[in-house]
Amino acid sequence: MRTASAGEESVIVVGGGPAGLACALALAAADVPVMLAAGPHRPGGFDRDRRTAGLFAGSIELLRNLGVWDGLKDACEPLKTIRLIDDTGRLFRAPEVKFHARDAGLEAFGFNVPNDALVDALSARVAATTGITVVPTAGARAVRIGPGQATIVLGEGPELSARLVVAADGRKSPTRDAAGITVKTWSYPQTAVVTWFSHQRPHDGISTEFHRAVGPFTTVPMPGRYSSLVWVEDPAEAERLMTLSETEFRRAIEVRLGGLLGTVGEIGPRASFPLSGLTPDVFGRNRVALVGESGHVIPPIGAQGLNLGLRDAATLADCVSDAVSAGHDPGGSEVLNRYSALRAPDVNGRIMAIDLLNRTLLSPYLTVHLIRGFGLHVLNNVDALRRLVVKEGVQPTAYIPTLMRSGGTAPATAGVLAPA
Ligand SMILES: Cc1cc2nc3c(=O)[nH]c(=O)nc-3n(C[C@H](O)[C@H](O)[C@H](O)COP(=O)(O)OP(=O)(O)OC[C@H]3O[C@@H](n4cnc5c(N)ncnc54)[C@H](O)[C@@H]3O)c2cc1C
C-alpha cells in the first residue's frame, strides 16, 4: 500500500464535479497545495451532464478569477430578465412578475452555463495548475479520521493523508458520513425532465418560469435561438414524457409554451432528476469540510444549487488561506467552525425559501395560494423590494468571498492556459 502525505499545509479535495474542481482551483489560487481525488463524473448516471446552470454574477466573477471564463463564455448566454408566470389555473392567481437585471444596476443577472462545458473548462484549468496534483481514481473507498489528519483510501489501493479533506463527492458523500456529519434528507413528489431545444422566436435573454400546480416549467436562454428546459412534473408524468417520441415531445413543449417562443425545432437528449432536499447538521467537522451537494441539495427552482456550491468553494478558500497565513491548522476546529458559521445562513436561508415556494405551488389550500399571490403582487409593485430581492438573489451581501470580488488572483499555471 502506497501512502502519500499531502504535507502540512495541503488539502485533499474528494470529487471532480464542478464544486470540487472549483474548490481545488480556489485553494490553489490562495497558494494552498491541493491533492484532487477525482472520481468519474457521471451525474444522474449519464456520460455527459445534460443540464445547464444559471450562474449569477458572483459565480461568474469566481470563474473569471480562476481563469476559466474566457474559454467558456462563448458557450453561455446572459440572463437579462427572469419572468414568473402563474400557470396554476387556480382561482387566485399571482400576477406575472419580471425581475430585470438592470433593476440591480447589472447588464445581466449572470449566464446560463452548460454543465459539461463548465466541467471541461475547470478540468483543463486544474490540469494546467501547478499547485494541484490530480490523483485519478474510480473512487475513494474509505476515509479514516485521526486526531491530526484524515486519510482517504482510494479504491485502487493508495492512501492520501492531509490535515483537511474537502468532501465534494456529491449528495451521497461517503467522506461526509465518515466525518460523522449527519444530514436531514427529504423528497418531493416531483421529477425534473431536462433537455434543450431550438425555437423560432428570439428569447431576448429572458428566462421564463411557468409556475404550475405540479411544479415549474422553466426555459432558460442559450446562445442563438436555443433554450434549455427544466420541466418539473409528478413522477409518473415525467416517466411518460421521457418515453415520448421526439415529435410528441416537441408538441408537448409547444403546448406548454403556448406560442411564447414560436414553433419548436431541434430537441436535445432528455434526462430526468427526482427532486429532493438535503441539509447537514454542520458544514465542517472532524477535518472534513462540505462543499457542493455533499452539503446541500435544493430543488432546481430559482437556479440556486451550484451557485451555493461555488460560494462554498470560494468561502472555504478564504478560511483555509487565513489559517495557513496565521500558522494555524487548516483542518482544525477553529477553521471548520468559521466556515460552517459563514455558510449556514446562506445555504439554510435559500433552502427554506425554495422549499416554501415549491410547497406553496403543490399545496391544495386556497389560503396558501392567496398568500403566495399577495407576496408576488407586492414584489411586482414595490420597486425597492424587488431590487432588494434581485440583489440578494445575485450576490448575497452577508459575506462576499475574495474570489467572488472583482480582481481576485488566478491560480498559477504551468503556462498551458493564459490567466484571464
Ligand atoms: C434539473 C437540475 C437543474 C439545475 N439547475 C441549476 C441552475 O440553474 N443553477 C444552479 O446553480 N444549480 C443548478 N442545479 C444544481 C447543480 O446542478 C448542482 O448543484 C451541481 O451539479 C452539483 O455539483 P457538485 O460538484 O456538488 O456534485 P456532483 O456534480 O454530484 O459531483 C460529485 C463528484 O464526486 C464524485 N464522487 C462521488 N463519490 C466519490 C468517491 N467515493 N470518491 C471520489 N469521487 C467521488 C462523483 O464522481 C462526481 O464527479 C440544477 C440541478 C438539477 C437537478
CATH first level of the largest domain: Alpha Beta
> What is the strand content?
25-35%
**Count of runs of 4 or more consecutive helical residues:** 11
- Write down the Rg: 21 Å
Q: Classify the secondary structure makeup into a structural class.
A: alpha/beta
Q: In CATH terms, what is the fold-level topology of the largest domain?
A: FAD/NAD(P)-binding domain
For the biggest sheet, the summary is: 8 strands, mixed
Can you identify the CATH superfamily of the largest domain? FAD/NAD(P)-binding domain
| Fraction of residues in H or I helices | 25-40%
Spans of at least 5 consecutive residues whose pLDDT stays below 50 are 415-420
Secondary-structure arrangement, i.e. CATH architecture of the largest domain = 3-Layer(bba) Sandwich
Number of strands: 21
- Overall shape: it is globular
Summarize model confidence as the mean pLDDT.
86
How far apart the termini lie comes to 41 Å
Summary keywords:
2 domains; disordered C terminus; D-Amino Acid Oxidase, Chain A, domain 2; single chain; 6-stranded mixed β-sheet; 11 helices; 28% strand; 420 residues; binds flavin-adenine dinucleotide; FAD/NAD(P)-binding domain; alpha/beta; 21 strands; 8-stranded mixed β-sheet
